[in-house]
Automatic annotation (TrEMBL), chain A:
Sequence intervals crossing the membrane: 12-30, 102-124, 131-154, 174-193, 232-254, 274-300
Top-rank lineage group of the source organism: Bacteria
UniProt membrane topology term: Multi-pass membrane protein
PANTHER family found in the cross-reference section: DIPEPTIDE TRANSPORT SYSTEM PERMEASE PROTEIN DPPB-RELATED, DIPEPTIDE-TRANSPORT INTEGRAL MEMBRANE PROTEIN ABC TRANSPORTER DPPB-RELATED
Protein's cellular compartments: Cell membrane
InterPro entries: BPD_transp_1_N, MetI-like, MetI-like_sf
Organism listed in the record: Streptomyces hiroshimensis
Keywords, in A-Z order: Cell membrane, Membrane, Transmembrane, Transmembrane helix, Transport
Protein name: ABC transporter permease
Boundaries of every ABC transmembrane type-1 domain copy: 96-297
UniProtKB/TrEMBL annotation, chain B:
Annotated signal sequence range: 1-22
Coiled-coil spans in chain: none
Entry keyword annotation includes Signal: yes
Keyword Nucleus on entry: no
Keywords: Signal
CDD domains found in the cross-reference section: PBP2_NikA_DppA_OppA_like
Protein name: Peptide ABC transporter substrate-binding protein
Pfam family, one: SBP_bac_5
Length: 307, 540
């Protein structure tokens, strides 16, 4: 297990370097000078552009730029952004916090709602509840998130006044965006849960357990749940990784100052240090979560050995 | 969905009126009594006066700084603020005397040195200030800001401090209306704190305006409170301003309607059709100091050879500006009739209609002129612009349609969209374009000089088409040497008449500044830079 983790972390470092290198190369070949366009429609004078190019190392060849970036990265320094001239880590850290808050809230709602709904639907197959879950999940999957977000806003903020319309830092303002993000995922989790559970319920070992006279609760918790949750864990892991990478539309609707919006703005401004910073972080989170999911497999299913 | 929101909001507002308790609606949204809650975006640059030339940073600077002059929010005229008098006998050497009794909000006195230190900082190439070029008229600029290489001096030799309240400025050449440029924030005085602890100052800037910054959370909000000790006569009429960052202007608009926000200054384009119904007379739409033009590559012989002025004029006449500004922009652009902006006002040198017939849509004459001039180079033209912002793609299509219709040829004009602004910028500066391209200009100060000299004077900094006309240059020089603003304006307007004849750039439209506000506030106006005049806003 220890060896496995170390090997996976080693792989992660390679993936990180690969991802940043590809990104660096892409940004390098983009037409236009990110510093030259900082002045908007007005031409910036060549002396200042030259100074800025030197300051950000843009006058150096790609390999040298990348080398500098990596050696700084190892020391936890992501560089300075082009527009505000602030440390990238300083710019991004509050946004990362906001995105993480939203992602955690969304994933909690996601897990609770999704698993519960799937469980009920599978246990009471073809009942009213099953049909209701199928109907609701179909609707949830069909709605784009901006529609859900705006419906929530108009009903619960403008009409009923239960929650603030947009983020104001309070816990209350977290609920609507978290729901907006969670609803689609929860629907998918519910369907996944229902499907795998129905399969497991038909499995021989479950029949055996029931025939042996085990209490229904033990059968369900120890044998059915545990076995049917593996694909759900995989899905939730991936989805959590996606959430931590920011959610542009939801962030925009609820004025949530997160990573997704920062990335889009940075792309529009060709603010390369921010772009590279966000992507590096995104890749790291994704790889880490994948590792976590793989480790969880072994916990859930002793037959899976990590070696 | 949007309609439903609006209807409910109306019901809510109505019931609030009936109950005589506005607090019943909307909910949320902080802001103490008398505080104006206004939408905001993260400033693009650090909040240094000489490094800010966009509206978001401009809002803050307009609240916390006062310079030698101030532009009247209505007329745009430059009036003395901190300056008691600015005197000159030769239009080149100026003596500036400051009023007594001005301090920064941290108590430090505003002296001559507060100005000269700030200007020297702005001009020095090492400080990489966006608006450094404003100081190019001051003697010694070449030393502190050489075109290439390192600076050979730290300070502008043209600035000399006489005493605490007097300093002199020597300009490189005669520039009679130079004092009227001094209302721009780039010329604001700076306290010692700016130089002594720059990082701390940037976190919480300190100035000498009617407001002081209370707190600044980058990316989310800035709170400003009225500075009670403010010595000027334009004291704030509200108790403070809360600037809230909105990542999406649709969200800000919804928040305004829900009663959580008092002022938005960017109406989302999707809402332009509804805004009059939604807000009634609480919607402002007025020309800003921004003009869009189509510049011709005069460096290209195909366009600059004699006779082509007819083609250029003809193309201008082929564009139906009224229709495009109506249908695409819902009147948030105003058809241009000259190369400046109505935001200048008469005093600033604006005169409607200087472009004359050449800017009036006339398909038949357009076709005739273009044929007389020898036709389009290569039989067709392409229009180039970046298309990542500002609906440029849409208007370029419309302009091309208009030209094609006028010429009766579906292929006379095609659009060349460039994906990113940086790429577009590059193609322009490397003179790679051989056909007309978009050229926008946002004024630095409300003077006609600012719309003409940087753009059309030979080899000027933003003269991308490389237009050059000795007569135009001569008129600009003469205008700058005139002793009265009226006489200078007349000369500049004569210079504009040359542009009308030569048409190095087709004026398209003036961009408008727009804003909407809640019924909680009144006396909302925009200044010539489209920045809300916060200190005049009354709450309640």
């Amino acid at each position: 297990m220890g060896k496995y983790v170390i090997r996976r972390i080693g792989q992660m470092v390679i993936v990180l370097f690969g991802a940043t290198l590809i990104l660096f190369a892409c940004l390098f070949v983009l037409p236009g000078d990110p510093v030259g366009s900082l002045g908007g429609d007005k031409a910036r004078d060549p002396a200042v552009i030259q100074q800025l190019r030197e300051r950000y190392g843009l006058d150096k060849p790609l390999v040298e730029q990348y080398g500098t970036y990596v050696s700084n990265l190892v020391q936890g320094d992501l560089g300075e952004d082009y527009t505000q001239r602030r440390e990238v880590t300083e710019v991004l850290s509050p946004k990362l916090g906001n995105t993480a808050k939203l992602a955690v809230a969304a994933i909690v709602i996601d897990v609770v709602l999704g698993i519960l709904a799937g469980l009920i639907a599978a246990l009471f197959r073809y009942s009213f509840w099953d049909v209701l879950v199928t109907l609701l999940t179909t609707m949830a999957i069909g709605f784009p998130s901006f529609v859900i977000g705006m419906i929530l806003q108009s009903q619960f903020a403008v009409n009923l006044g239960w929650f603030p319309l947009i983020s104001d830092g309070s816990f209350n303002s977290l609920i609507m965006p978290a729901f907006t993000l969670a609803i689609i995922d929860a629907a998918l989790v519910a369907r996944l849960m229902r499907g795998t559970m129905l399969e497991v319920l038909r499995a021989d070992y479950v029949k055996t357990a029931i025939a042996k006279g085990l209490p229904r609760r033990t059968v369900l918790l120890k044998h059915v749940m545990r076995n049917s949750i593996i694909p759900v864990v995989t899905y939730i892991g991936i989805s959590f990784g996606g959430l931590l990478g920011g959610a542009l539309i939801t962030e925009a609707i609820f004025n949530w100052d997160g990573i997704g919006f920062a990335l889009v703005t940075a792309i529009q401004q060709q603010n390369n240090p921010i772009i590279v910073g966000v992507v590096t972080y995104g890749v790291a989170v994704f790889v880490l979560l994948n590792l976590l999911v793989d480790l969880l497999y072994a916990v859930l299913d002793p037959r899976i050995r990590l070696s | 969905m949007r309609g439903a929101t609006r209807a409910r909001w109306a019901v809510c507002a109505l019931s609030a009126v009936l109950a005589a308790a506005a607090a019943g609606c909307g909910g949320g949204g902080g802001g103490g009594t008398g505080v104006v809650r206004s939408s905001w975006g993260d400033p693009q640059n650090p909040l240094e006066p000489a490094n800010t030339n966009e509206v978001q940073g401009g809002k803050v600077l307009a609240m916390i700084f006062r310079g030698l002059k101030r532009y009247d929010p209505r007329s745009g005229a430059a009036e003395n603020m901190l300056a008691e008098k600015i005197e000159t006998s030769d239009q080149q050497n100026f003596t500036i005397t400051l009023k007594d009794g001005w301090t920064f909000s941290n108590g430090e006195k505003v002296t001559s040195k507060s100005f000269t230190d700030a200007w020297n900082y702005a001009a020095l190439v090492d400080n990489k200030q966006k608006n450094a070029s404003f100081f190019e008229y001051v003697d010694g600029y070449d030393k502190v800001h050489p075109a290439s290489g390192a600076a050979t001096a730290k300070t502008l030799s043209g600035l000399v401090v006489k005493d605490d309240r007097t300093f002199t400025v020597k300009l490189k050449t005669k520039f009679s209306t130079w004092p009227d440029t001094l209302g721009y924030t780039a010329y604001a005085p700076l306290p010692r704190a700016f130089f002594d602890d720059h990082a701390a100052w940037l976190k919480k800037p300190v100035g000498n305006g009617p407001y002081a910054i209370d707190s600044y959370a980058k990316g989310s909000a800035m709170k400003l409170t009225k500075w009670d000790g403010y010595p000027g006569d334009d004291k704030a009429k509200n108790s403070g301003v809360e600037l809230r960052v909105y990542t999406d202007n649709n969200t800000a608009y919804t928040d305004l309607q829900a009663g959580n926000l008092d002022l938005v200054d960017d109406i989302p384009s999707a809402q332009l059709k509804n805004v009059k119904n939604d807000l009634g007379d609480r919607y402002i739409n007025q020309p800003a100091g921004i003009i869009q033009t189509l510049a011709f590559p005069m460096y290209d012989a195909n366009w600059s050879k004699s006779g082509m002025e007819k083609v250029r004029r003809g193309l201008s006449m082929a564009i139906n500006r009224d229709q495009i500004t109506d249908q695409i922009y819902q009147k948030t652009r105003t058809p241009a009739t000259d190369w400046t902006s109505p935001a200048l006002g008469e005093k600033g040198g604006y005169k409607a209609g200087l472009c004359g017939d050449a800017c009036t849509f006339d398909a038949a004459s357009a076709k005739k002129l273009i044929q007389e001039g020898g036709g389009l180079p290569g039989g067709r033209i392409t229009l180039t612009s970046n298309v990542d912002t500002g609906s440029h793609r849409v208007w370029m299509d419309a302009v091309c349609n208009s030209i094609n219709n006028a010429l009766g040829n579906d292929n006379a004009c095609i659009v060349n969209p460039v994906g990113t602004f940086a790429d577009f910028r590059n193609q322009i500066s490397e003179q790679r374009l051989s056909n007309p391209f978009r050229s926008g200009w946002q004024m630095d100060y409300p003077l006609i000089q600012n719309f003409l000299q940087p753009l059309y004077y030979t080899d000027a900094s933003s003269n991308y088409g490389k237009f050059s006309d000795p007569q135009f240059d001569k008129l600009v020089d003469e205008a700058n040497a005139e002793s009265s603003q009226g006489a200078a304006n007349a000369k500049f307007q004569d210079a504009e008449r040359i542009l009308a004849r030569e048409m190095p750039a087709i004026p398209l439209w003036y961009q408008n500044g727009s804003a909407g506000y809640s019924d909680r506030v009144s006396d909302v106006t925009l200044n010539p830079f489209s920045v809300p005049v916060y200190e005049q806003i009354k709450v309640g």
